[in-house]
């Protein structure tokens, strides 16, 4: 499947299927899942990066277990909206996934998602640095996925 515009994604996916949100970091992939009505995103898990094929297989296992029909990948744009090396790396990740197995993919602007989530974890949940490290990436993935779900809500 080619990368789709977010607004075209619902038509490409069977109704009643969940989506996964991904926050692609240098060492980890934060993963969040939507419910089957695509209303609510929840943090799911963290994939520690090793080799790309192993990472992809772990992601495909999650997709199969949850009957997921699409991935929403956070796109780390620069503050001026341009794409830098990290955004290009996210696009390459999606292309490489598609080479292994066709998958519906859309991108969601993730500017400031990690800092917003970190602020929430500190101010609202009062988590210390060690506890934040364990949840920040998957929570950022939920933030990204929820942003996409909210954009698509009428």
UniProtKB/TrEMBL annotation:
Its EC number is 3.1.-.-. Pfam families: RuvX. It is found in: Cytoplasm. Gene3D superfamilies: YqgF/RNase H-like domain (3.30.420.140). Residues 17-117 form the YqgF/RNase H-like domain. The keyword Cell wall biogenesis/degradation does not apply. SUPFAM superfamilies: Ribonuclease H-like (SSF53098). Keywords: Cytoplasm, Hydrolase, Nuclease, Ribosome biogenesis. PANTHER family: POLYNUCLEOTIDYL TRANSFERASE, RIBONUCLEASE H-LIKE SUPERFAMILY PROTEIN (PTHR33317). Could be a nuclease involved in processing of the 5'-end of pre-16S rRNA. Belongs to the YqgF HJR family. NCBIfam families: RNAse_H_YqgF. This is Putative pre-16S rRNA nuclease. The gene is ruvX.
């Amino acid at each position: 499947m080619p990368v789709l515009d977010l607004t075209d994604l619902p038509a490409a996916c069977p109704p009643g299927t969940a989506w996964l949100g991904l926050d692609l970091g240098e060492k980890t992939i934060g993963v969040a899942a939507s419910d089957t009505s695509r209303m609510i995103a929840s943090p799911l898990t963290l994939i520690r990066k090793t080799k790309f094929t192993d990472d992809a297989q772990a992601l495909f296992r999650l997709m199969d277990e949850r009957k997921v029909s699409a991935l929403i990948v956070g796109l780390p744009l620069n503050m001026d909206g341009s794409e830098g090396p990290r955004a290009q790396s996210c696009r390459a990740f999606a292309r490489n996934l598609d080479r292994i197995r066709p998958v519906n993919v859309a991108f969601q602007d993730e500017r400031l998602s990690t800092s917003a989530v970190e602020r929430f974890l500190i101010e609202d949940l009062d988590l210390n640095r060690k506890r934040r490290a364990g949840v920040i990436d998957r929570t950022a993935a939920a933030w990204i996925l929820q942003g996409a779900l909210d954009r698509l809500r009428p």
